[in-house]
Amino acid sequence: MSEAEKVVCVTGASGYIASWLVKFLLQRGYTVKATVRDPNNPRKMEHLLALDGAKERLHLFKGDLLKEGSFDSVVDGCEGVFHTASPVINNFTDPQLWYSLSKTLAEAAAWKFAKENAIDMVTINPGFVIGPLLQPTLNTSVEPLLKLVNGAKIIPNATYRWVDVRDVANAHILAFENPSASGRYCLVGRVMHCYEVVKILRELFSDLNLPEKSEDDKPFVPTYQVSKERAESLGLNFTPVEVSLKDTVESFKEKKFLSV
User: By residue range, what is the domain housing residue 225?
Assistant: First the structure.
């Protein structure tokens, strides 16, 4: 069956990663059944409807993660499902923590369900995802970078596992199209301390008001290595972090997220 004949589902389609996933699937000729919280919200749908191929092969449906059976009719008849939707609760002290927890619990439940129902499942586990935004709203994973370039006074003594959003979207498709893909795939393009990130940004953007001092006098949180071997076995080529950082900041500027 050719890609043009394949119908796939993408949940949470208006999100950061999912928007790129929908874009790349349409580029490859897939018909995409996409679920969103509110298909009648033009602000959150415009960027999807504007994608090449959307008029012919993108179909939007309402999907509610908290309503059992909400996705049954959408998934029916699909060759594959890309499940990216996750509930986000912002009325907690640390919404990032709860978001991460929801992802962890959801994956554990998914593996259990897949095993019990003989479903072929693969999971993609990215680090901190950066890169240009297709959606009009700010997402959680790029917030640390936005804070860094948006008038921060100090450099956080923190190390992040950076990966480009376009690589994450591509990895989903490569895993789907590769019959031998199995298990979990950790996606990290590069592990870097925030000090190194600021150094790269200063070379790329002379107009940014970037911090110069570290937040404390403690030794830098060490970096480490995350193997790329499994991800590259899918055929994935990681985007250099310099390109990801440049494209992210330019996207911030385009969407007027910068206040300085």
Answer: 126-260
The 10 Å CB-count burial string (b at 16+, else e) for 106-117 is: bbeeeeeeeeee
- DSSP one-letter string for 21-54: HHHHHHHTT-EEEEEES-TT-HHHHHHHHTSTTH
pLDDT given at position 136: 94
Q: What mean pLDDT value characterizes the chain? A: 92
pLDDT tens digits, 15-24: 999 999 999 9
Q: Are 189 and 164 in contact, with CB atoms under 8 Å apart?
A: yes
- Is 227 domain-assigned? yes
Domain-embedded: residue 257: yes
Residue 98 lies in a domain: no
Per-residue pLDDT band for 87 (boundaries 50, 70, 90) equals low
DSSP label at residue 77? T
The phi and psi torsions of 209 (rounded to 5 degrees) equal: -90, 85
> 154-177, pLDDT tens digit by residue?
999 999 999 999 999 999 999 999
Beta bridge partners of 34: 10, 60
Count Cβ neighbours within 10 Å for each residue of 188-225 and write b for 16 or more, e otherwise: bbbbbbbbbbbeebeeebeebebbeebeeeeeeeeeee
- State the pLDDT at residue 76: 93
Confidence (pTM): 0.92
Count, residues in the chain: 260
Question: In 3D, which of 81, 76, 77 has the Cα closest to residue 122?
Answer: 81
Q: What is the CATH number of the domain that holds 200?
A: 3.40.50.720
